[in-house]
Amino acid sequence: MKLQELLNRIPTLEIHGETDREVSELVFDSRKAVENTLYIAVRGTIADGHSFITSSIEKGARTIVCEELPENLDENVTYVKVKDSSKTLGHLASNFYGNPSRNLKLIGVTGTNGKTSVSTLLFDVFKNLGYDSALLSTVEIRIADQVIPATHTTPDIITINRILAEAVEKGCEFAFMEVSSHGISQNRIEGLHFKVAGFTNLTHDHLDYHKTFDEYLKTKKRFFDELEDSAVAITNVDDKNGNVMLQNTKAKKKSYAMKTMADYHGKSLEVDFNGMLLNFNGKEFWTTLTGKFNVYNLLLVFGIATELGFQQDEILQAISKLQRVSGRFETFKSDGGIFFIVDYAHTPDALENILDSINDIRTKNERLITVFGCGGDRDHSKRPKMGNIAAKKSTLAIITSDNPRTEDPAQIIKEIEAGVEPQNFSKYTSIPDRREAIKMAIKFAEPRDIVLVAGKGHETYQEINGIKHHFDDKEVINELWKLMSK
Description:
Residues 327-457 form the Mur ligase C-terminal domain. The protein is an alpha/beta fold. The chain folds into 3 domains: 3-96, MurE/MurF, N-terminal domain (Udp-n-acetylmuramoylalanyl-d-glutamate--2,6- Diaminopimelate Ligase, Chain: A, domain 1); 100-319, UDP-N-acetylmuramoyl-L-alanine:D-glutamate ligase; 330-484, Mur ligase, C-terminal domain (Protein-Tyrosine Phosphatase, Chain A, Alpha-Beta Complex). The protein is built from 16 helices and 24 strands. Strands 9-8-7-10-6-11-12-13-14-15-16 form an 11-stranded mixed β-sheet, with helices on both faces.
């Protein structure tokens, strides 16, 4: 693409050099520069891209987009000065790939819990409705039937546009995207055109990054503040921050809820471990998904699909065919009658939701054994809260390691234990080795008991001192059960 086309509708402060030059690709990592690359110098949290302008030119970059021009300008290079490189990057990426987010219907889902589930459920519902779509989530990236492993909650904006362009080329009409607070904060959704934005909930998470809850709230809200008036914003008004998201948006405002009046209202009529009988806007249907949090997830899916123009009866028919998302309230029963649940719950709210859902279903004749931990190098303040929730709502809580990363697992466990209230001291124990903790849960469990293994869900690794070791909770449960039941 010619540089002059690439700069279409992008505000610039100064341009030095010719704009009639070819741009072969966009990079913001100077190490990836090749002949005729456009290099964008972005100021990051660790490094400033302006420091690598010279090395990008040495590797073949012939266009530089930056906020500060170098002292010595190379006459063979075009320099474009802009106010904010990070924001400009998104618009450049959109132009370079032919503005793909305007050539399909892009749906973004944000919130603390449920982003991955809702995005994946939408992808599956639309497949059941007969449409090819794209999915950009934490777990995987999919373009119709093609699966690409995911590395971040929200990929960089160049990658997003490349995936969306490929989806357009393959005939996809819809794209469902998990939108993280990190992605919003780091301008990784800049320049994208969202047709619908969905909000799940806002609870205690990522305060290691955002520092305060208010800052976290403002970051999420920015997603809705920046929507165009042609978009639809749909939020959970049972969450006290649901209406906050809608305060300044230009988008059409819609709501969903179970407890209050809303455009999309849901009721749970029957619930067990095999599924639920639900009523959405006066229509009854059965789903194999279970748990109150899944009622909210499905209600958002229902609302989004309706706003995209589908008939409610056909949406509910497609929802009733859904299978559970990997690692989200995934249940299986051992031949010894013990009921196992694997779930990704790794925040206080998510852990409380899953435990409440289990306690709502069980008859209280069965014991509930919970195995969980907290990730290292992350928000410390949620650890005691999770310790308190697990010990209070389980028959026995076994505190163990999650992904300790560079922290000492024993120290993480100590911080979790600090939240357990004295009356629940007899209801918990701690075993730092996750495999041994699961082994103890199986040993302690009797027929009909429920064992919840929380925190990792779909993850198939455990990160210790920067090294990822293979560890899949489901595999470990099955393997230990076979060994111990011989």
